Amino acid sequence: MRELRAAFREGLPPLIEALEGVIGELRGGSIDVEDDARRLAHQLKGSGGSFGYPKVTNAAVEVLQASATEMVEPLEVLVAMLRRVVAEDGSTATQILVIDDDPLIQRLLVATLGSEGREVVVAGSLKEAEPLFSGDWSLIILDLFLPDGDGREVIKQIREGVETALTPILVLSGASSSHARDECLDLGAVAFVEKPFVPGELFEIADQILHGVLPSQQTQGQVVEEESDEPGPRAILLAEDDELTATLIKDRLLRNGFEVVHCTNGHEALEVAETQPFVLAILDVKMPRMDGFELLAKLRKLPQLMEMPIMMLTGMGSEHDVVRGFELGADGYVLKPFSPAELVARIDRLLVQA
């Protein structure tokens, strides 16, 4: 993962230059570059979180949600964020700040979330935490009830800070209250978890956030509403020439309520994509007639598919393929060999994020 993060950073200067060009055009009164801005932001929305930079994803989402006349400010925030990423020396770990006064919870979170490439810093009170707010945190986990402060006020404070305005916040609460949950989410938290919690489930939620995806508990209602507007199973385009791999994927996706259209080469997949709607595409990198990269580039040129999530399949040891895929507009990747459960989890994340 460290090598992938380094490759991601190395590929950012051309993107920064392109974004600065767009900003200059917008400041000059031209809105003809709006599509360029959205294309670049869409690329960064997917790749930022995948490489462990959720703030990049959040900043890119702000650009995508802005109108052409309001796009300059979020673009400048995105560029500033990218410059900070480029300035990393490569040894920077994903940093998580935990604000909770319970020593047992502190130890549990350190044991659950701490790993190679992740550093967990603990503060037992608001007084201890405030000097740390200037840090470059990938995630802040906040207890709703602190000995010297109300978690809701702390959320406001974090959101008003220049360094932490885009930092994801996960709230922990010993009280089961839908009102408190809704209030925290309205103030800017991205997730609300009740105590006691299952460590594995909390890890999954935190991992989703660190990959730039909102947990389903916040977005579940929206997803159901969107699905109800389109009756019938959701269709996924699968371009994979290996029959064994394709069968494994199809079997798992069908059991999870998806419809799968399988193509054995890129040329066939392109023809199908031009005539049928899909919620997501899974493309193998190495295929006959047209490989996954060429297919990806052609799909991204189709207006109706510019926003469709696309996941790439590539073998272990081919991490450079991952970087190239993101440069061409992919939203995610899975390294072979993979577990079907991992594949479905990544698909669900992309569909929630889309």
TrEMBL record:
SMART domains: HPT (SM00073), REC (SM00448). PANTHER family: RESPONSE REGULATORY DOMAIN-CONTAINING PROTEIN, STRESS RESPONSE REGULATOR PROTEIN 1. Residues 95-210, 235-351 form the Response regulatory domain. GO terms for biological process: phosphorelay signal transduction system. Residues 1-96 form the HPt domain. Transmembrane segments: none annotated. Gene3D superfamilies: 3.40.50.2300, HPT domain. This is Response regulator. The keyword Transferase does not apply.
